[in-house]
Amino acid sequence: MKKIMFYTMGMTSGGAEKVISELANYFINSNDVLLVTNHNSKSNYKLDKRIKYLNLDNKNKLDEKIYKKIITKISRYRTKRLKEIIAKERPKCIVAFLPEPTIRLLKLRKKYPDIKFIVSIRNHPTKEFRFLKFLRNHYYKMADKIVIQSKSYKKYLPKYLSKKVEIIPNPINKIKVRSNKKEKKIVNAGRLCKQKNQMLLLKAFKMLNDKDYHLEIYGNGKYKKKLDKYIKKNNLQKRVSIITNEKEIYDKISNASLFVLSSNYEGMPNTILESLALNIPVVSTRSTEVIEELLDNKYIVECNNPIKLKDKIEEVLKSNSYVTKKLFNSDEVYQKWNDIFK
């Protein structure tokens, strides 16, 4: 039995956070598992009680004065706390997700040469660090392994990082639901933000010829007011619902006729994998090359074209058949992670 530490920003919501919860819950059965986050908050995802969950932003509450100072002060505080936790817990390997945690961890590489440092790129490689790719490339050289979600993403990394790359898709466990009886309902789930582009879906939904369908959008974020304003302006209040506080949405969406991903860009969308596992047909924008690994091309439309999205939605809703590609085997995914932990 070894100790595995996962480190990320927080566990409130998001695809990276969902994957961490799945990995932590799986590996706690044969290892000690420690989960460390920057933010002082509870996990929105169900975690096994045996998992030790710690925050960098204080055991109790981070002094408010720190937040009033410049960001570097906060960063130094978090780095100090991270070093304290590593020194006390002495994990055999540490897996960091998302830009800030991965860079903070790799800055400590020389201090802990006996610990395996693993970093994972969770969004599209061209988007995750944006204009700070030079920073990523500099520090990622110090990682023992770099996990990406698709072979197609390898081309976006410099060749000197390629030898460290492991390709591991997202795990999706079996989902139990109460009912699979379909209703005239279309669903979407994700942060309400520019990246997820729910506005595109609203514009397409408004044009649907069949006005009996209801649209449910699950998520929260800074774009909610903008979406609410559009819904009200176009008299869609009775046909569209934005649900912000649902943690486990499987029972809520399992009876949907269609899931629509409207994102501008993605890493590997858990929402598509989960919808397919629930036998919900999916229509998606071409937000990443990975979409073509998950869906037949006839269910994919180009980004930012509400008319084409509307046409594709109607086409799938009228069809009596839906072709799915083979989903990833979760056991194989866990085995890949286990191999790099060794």
Describe this structure in words.
It is a single chain. The protein has a seven-stranded parallel beta sheet with strand order 3-2-1-4-5-6-7, with helices on both faces. The chain is 34% helix and 17% strand. It contains 13 helices and 13 strands. α7 links the parallel β8 and β9. It has two domains: 182 residues, Rossmann fold; 134 residues, Rossmann fold (3-Layer(aba) Sandwich). α4 packs across α5 and α7 crosses α12. The longest helix has 19 residues. The protein is of the alpha/beta class. The protein is elongated.
The biggest sheet amounts to:
7 strands, parallel
How much of the sequence lies in strands comes to: 15-25%
Q: Could you give me the name of the CATH homologous superfamily of the largest domain?
A: Glycogen Phosphorylase B
And the CATH topology of the largest domain? Answer: Rossmann fold
Main-sheet strand order equals 3-2-1-4-5-6-7
The tally of helices reads 13
Order of helices and strands: EHEEHHEHEHEHEEHEHEHEHEHEHH
Q: What is the CATH-assigned architecture of the largest domain?
A: 3-Layer(aba) Sandwich
Radius of gyration: 21 Å
Total individual domains: 2
Q: Low-confidence parts lasting 5 or more residues at pLDDT below 50?
A: none
Ends: how far apart? Answer: 11 Å
Form type: elongated
Oligomeric state of the chains in view: single chain
Name of the level-1 CATH class of the largest domain: Alpha Beta
In which range does the helix fraction lie? 25-40%
Structural class by sheet pairing and helices: alpha/beta
Q: How many beta-strand elements?
A: 13
The average pLDDT score comes to 90
